[in-house]
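Subject: Predicted fold for Thioredoxin, 192 residues

User T.R. writes:
Posting the sequence so we have a shared reference for the thread.
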Amino acid sequence: MKRLLVLTVLLAWSTIATAHETKMGDDGLHKQDWFLNSFLDLKDDLAEATKSGKRFAIVWEQKGCPYCADMHVINFADDKLRTWIKDHYVVLQLNLWGSREVTDFDGQVLPEKELARKYRITFTPTVQYFPESVAEMAGKKGADGEVARLPGYFRNGHFLGMFEYVWDKRYAKGQDFQRYIIEKSEARQPSR
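User M.O. replies:
I've generated the structure tokens; pasting them so everyone works from the same file.
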């Protein structure tokens, strides 16, 4: 009887774990089927996001990055988190050491690894968030156009919190991300 119970639990656990597995691409990066598959023209990608009523973000990763893997198998495995991001964002995945050619907002064409240097991306994962429209990027180069950056791996609450922070345009109101998180935390606390 114990063996049957153990086998049942293991089977159930493996079924749950399998439901959240990600695919590995030829470049060694974990893939989400809802990530943007584009011609890597950032201006066009931002315009498409805007047209669909969503925000645009770039997630930078690299092969062998354990925190990138965690982002996929922990953060993106959370159905509520993943669904919220999919409903509100167009996410483009770029490779810190990649060689695909990307057309930057300013028209410059660079391999991913050179764009990463231009944007001062030094570790992974890093998520960059951009303004709501192409017009807001006019005259800005590299990372100067981003409205927020999530540098490194964060647990689900803070990870989703940054996406919500940008969606709510708190950066435009001068509110720091840390204050936003504190405000959200206090709002969840029961009244005393």
